[in-house]
Fold N-acetyltransferase domain-containing protein.
Amino acid sequence: MSQFTLKGKTVELKKPSFEELAFVQWLWSDEETMKSSGGPITFSEEEKKRWYEIMINPSNGKHLYCLVYNQSNKPVGEVSFHQYDKITKAAEFNIKIAYAERGKGYGSEAAKLLLDYYFNKWNGEIMRDSLAIDNIEGQNTVLRFGFDKVYTTKDEFLVAMTKEKFNRIYQKEAGK
């Protein structure tokens, strides 16, 4: 697998090797990290292999999954997009930062790096994120970041960001 990397000031996004999925297994099974996302998730070795082939190597062209590494080259979370639709040019956003690593700016920088790639290299037009209705912290985080609320149901809080809005907010910030 060729190494895919996006570098920022405090984080680096990298497609993981199969061996690095041990971190993903830990992240998804960590009670504190996952409590706002519906709770811990475990998967078997067979599920891990299948997931890796679909999401990472070689991928089916609808996903980009990366681990988030800090400046010490330690994984601190994940960021990805899924289910890219070539017709609507829309995908689903995902980000998880380990509970103990939150509040250090990793999530915001990782989101900016991935969304810049998605909108300006991948040529996506819309990024959506569906959050649990009781995940108030996550809802506030994505709204502060610049996503707009689309709708709320009894189970879901849906937000979206367009390429135009992302570039208006973050390209100006980057001096582009």
